[in-house]
């Protein structure tokens, strides 16, 4: 009889422990200024995962491409604000500013960017939320652009600052991937404001939120730049 | 020397099995709870999971929890498979299963007449365990294919593409939850099998 009781008690305490686990994570990433033990554990694991993802990343593996008939049109809007709030950037006065470890920091106008070799792709855009759309983007390959401006490609990060205050950063290996482009066009016409006009990053080897829109500044650096979502707890590497 | 050598009684469940079993149970619970939070961000079906039973207060935290436990699950699962094959455990304990024995034991279980012999799994258990091992392999492969559809494209292809892989992942989760429910009900029906899964227990002496 004793044995049976022991079994039941263990079961009960186990059930209670499981219950405790599910309520405990309620506190994760809620107060960014005061990370608790759980936050620190999650951060450590995220850092470990970023390293594993960098190891898994093969610079020669291409993201799958699709026929034009599969393009999702109209595309799906997603941001932390409503579509009507998308920033309007005047294409006539637009200048892409450069910073960090770059030799030639002359800003680039849209016309100058359009004067560079352009490349197009029909790739899948996967959101961290789990949905995906297919789009046709074209623009300047980022690897070409980085070499052209004399960027130090031994640096770790390329960072982006956007017209709406959004910011993000990617690892250099992914920045140099052949399918990573500074996109200017969607379906062969200039990008519209909600979808990143005048210049956005299109990087099919990463999740959607790593494709910043309406980029105003690009920098090359060795200091971890973080990102709008990344600083709140999204996994920084977020490779596909 | 001439005397019979003293044998330490053999445990019903050897320690590597117990360790891996409870590590797995913990990792699975964490992964399922955080997986439900991730699911809620873009539901596949007409429902979401109540926030009180999800792990992680929002999508970012759900992903962080999920990624924090995938390695534990994969390493533990891999060790279990290696150990199970190399030690002969699978061959001794989970094999063979015949459809006849399964039907017979299901019938017996429904009449609450399934005998339980220490250290021997009945046919219902064998089917359930092999099934959940298969579900475990499926959930890892489909999980990797939605996490890395570019780098691990061959796994994504195996699952029928990114879109279908999400359904495969969900289905495997549903199978594991169903298994867990039946598994725990069976343990509650025969609670004396639980302590040996924790402490090891002692196999009844066998005459050889
Ligand atoms: C959290 C509650 C759980 C409890 C109380 C529990 C309890 C047990 C017990 C008592 C046994 C031994 C059965 C016997 O000797 O007849 C067992 C075996 C087993 N359990 Fe669980 N378990 C739990 C969770 C899980 C989970 C989540 C999984 C997998 C998804 C799992 C998979 C297995 C497997 C595969 C075996 C057979 C192991 C072998 O011999 O290779 N269990 N469990």
Which series of helices and strands of chain A comes N to C?
Answer: HHEEHEEHEEHEEEE
- Gap from first CA to last CA of chain B: 19 Å
What fraction of the residues of chain A are assigned to beta strands by DSSP? Answer: 15-25%
Radius of gyration over C-alpha positions of chain B, nearest whole angstrom? 20 Å
Q: Which small compounds were modeled alongside the protein?
A: protoporphyrin IX containing FE
Give helix % range of chain A: 10-25%
Average pLDDT value of chain A? 88
The biggest sheet of chain B amounts to:
none
3D shape of chain A: globular
Could you spell the SSE succession of chain B in H and E letters?
HHHHHHHH
- Cα shape of chain B: globular
Q: Helical stretch count of chain B?
A: 8
CATH homologous superfamily descriptor of the largest domain in chain A: Oxidoreductase, molybdopterin-binding domain
Roughly how many Å apart are the termini of chain A? Answer: 55 Å
Instruction: Tell me what the CATH architecture of the largest domain in chain A is.
Output: Alpha-Beta Complex
The low-confidence parts of chain B are: none
Q: Count the strands of chain A?
A: 10
Structure description:
- The complex is a heterodimer of chains A (240) and B (208).
- With 240 residues, chain A is α+β, with helices and mostly antiparallel strands.
- Chain A folds into two domains: 3-56; 68-232, Oxidoreductase, molybdopterin-binding domain (Sulfite Oxidase, Chain A, domain 2).
- Chain A has helices at 2-23, 37-56, 110-114, 142-148, 172-175, and strands spanning 95-100, 108-109, 119-126, 132-141, 157-162, 167-171, 181-186, 189-190, 200-202, 215-221.
- Chain A has a five-stranded mixed sheet.
- The model of chain A is unreliable at 1-16 and 19-27 (pLDDT under 50).
- With 208 residues, chain B is mostly helical.
- The interface between A and B is large, with 48 and 41 residues.
- Bound molecules: protoporphyrin IX containing FE.
- Protoporphyrin IX containing FE is lined by residues 17, 21, 24-25, 28, 93, 121, 125, 129, 132, 176, 180, 183-184, 187, 193-194, 197 of chain B.
């Amino acid at each position: 009889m004793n044995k049976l009781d022991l079994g039941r008690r263990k079961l009960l305490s186990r059930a209670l422990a499981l219950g405790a686990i599910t309520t405990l994570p309620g506190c994760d990433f809620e107060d960014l200024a005061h990370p608790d033990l759980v936050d620190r554990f999650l951060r450590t694991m995220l850092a470990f995962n970023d390293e594993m993802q960098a190891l898994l990343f093969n610079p020669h593996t291409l993201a799958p491409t699709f026929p034009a008939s599969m393009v999702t049109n109209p595309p799906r809007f997603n941001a932390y604000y409503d579509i009507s709030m998308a920033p309007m950037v005047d294409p006539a006065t637009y200048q892409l500013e450069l910073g960090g470890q770059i030799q030639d920091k002359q800003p680039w106008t849209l016309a100058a960017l359009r004067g560079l070799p352009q490349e197009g792709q029909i790739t899948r855009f996967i959101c961290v939320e789990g949905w995906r759309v297919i789009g046709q983007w074209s623009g300047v390959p980022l690897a070409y652009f980085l070499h052209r401006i004399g960027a130090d490609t031994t640096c770790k990060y390329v960072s982006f600052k956007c017209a709406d205050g959004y910011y993000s950063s990617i690892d250099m290996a992914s920045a140099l991937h052949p399918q990573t482009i500074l996109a200017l066009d969607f379906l062969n016409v200039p990008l519209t404001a909600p979808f990143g006009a005048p210049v956005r990053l299109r990087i099919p080897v990463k999740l959607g939120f790593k494709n910043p829109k309406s980029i105003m500044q690009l920098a090359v650096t060795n200091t971890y730049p973080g990102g709008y979502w990344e600083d709140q707890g999204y996994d920084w590497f977020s490779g596909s | 020397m001439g005397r019979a050598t003293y044998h330490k009684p053999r445990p019903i469940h050897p320690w590597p099995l117990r360790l891996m079993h409870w590590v797995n149970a913990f990792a699975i619970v964490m992964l399922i709870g955080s997986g439900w939070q991730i699911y809620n961000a873009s539901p596949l079906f007409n429902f979401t999971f109540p926030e009180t039973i999800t792990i992680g207060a929002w999508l970012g935290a759900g992903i962080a929890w999920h990624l924090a436990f995938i390695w534990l699950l994969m390493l533990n699962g891999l060790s279990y498979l290696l150990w199970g094959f190399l030690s002969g455990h699978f061959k001794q304990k989970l094999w063979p299963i015949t459809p006849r024995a399964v039907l017979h034991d299901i019938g017996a279980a429904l009449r609450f007449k399934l005998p339980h012999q220490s250290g021997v799994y009945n046919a219902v258990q064998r089917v359930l365990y092999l099934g959940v091992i298969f579900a475990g392999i499926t959930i890892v492969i489909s999980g990797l294919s939605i996490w890395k559809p570019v780098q691990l494209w061959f796994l994504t292809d195996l699952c029928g593409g990114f879109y279908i892989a999400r359904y495969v992942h969900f289905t495997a989760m549903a199978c594991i939850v169903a298994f867990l429910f039946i598994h725990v009900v069976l343990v509650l029906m025969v609670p004396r099998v639980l302590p040996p899964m924790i402490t090891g227990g002692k196999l009844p002496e066998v005459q050889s």
